[in-house]
Design a protein that fits this description.
6-stranded mixed beta barrel, two-stranded antiparallel sheet
Length: 163
């Protein structure tokens, strides 16, 4: 008997809470209609370079060609969890990269020349230190654009995001 009364009380409280919530939404809509257009100041908004929607990231701005063909490799397990040259902790499951000369925080679009797949990464580290390699991508970034999982390096086209 006590369990039934308790369940009824919980349901009653839940119903009252939702009706109160619905009334507050309706009151908010009525109050919003009262505000005149003249009383609202127009603010100048600046365009952001990053728009995140669901699981997709779209970058506003133009990409300027940097290198038409470059050899990209990836670095993963050995450096995972270590501090990078920029001071951030390296995570092989993020879209980051290492480059010898580009400033930290630079956004680069790497396009696999063979497949046409692209990925946008942020420069967070220095490297690669192997002759003939231009950029080291994180494991996630590399396998996003690689045609096979057994590849150790791929040829890419590099473009820099201009703000």
């Amino acid at each position: 008997m006590k369990k039934r009364i308790t369940k009824l009380l919980v349901i009653l409280i839940a119903l009252l809470g939702t009706s109160f919530f619905a009334q507050s939404i309706l009151i908010g809509k009525k109050e919003a209609k009262i505000i005149t257009k003249d009383s609202v100041k127009k603010q100048k908004t600046t365009e952001k370079t990053l728009v995140i929607t669901d699981s997709t990231t779209a970058y506003k701005g133009k990409f300027k060609p940097y290198k038409k063909t470059a050899r990209a490799s990836y670095y993963a397990n050995k450096f995972h969890g270590r501090r990078t040259a920029s001071g951030r902790i390296y995570n092989m499951y993020e879209l980051t990269a290492a480059h010898k000369t580009l400033p930290f925080g630079t956004k680069i679009r790497a396009t696999n020349i063979a497949t046409g797949k692209t990925v946008v990464v942020e420069i967070t580290d220095r490297g690669p230190f192997i002759k003939g390699r231009e950029i080291d991508l994180s494991k996630k970034a590399f396998f996003t654009i690689a045609s096979s999982s057994g590849a150790g390096y791929i040829n890419v086209c590099l473009e820099i995001l201009q703000n």
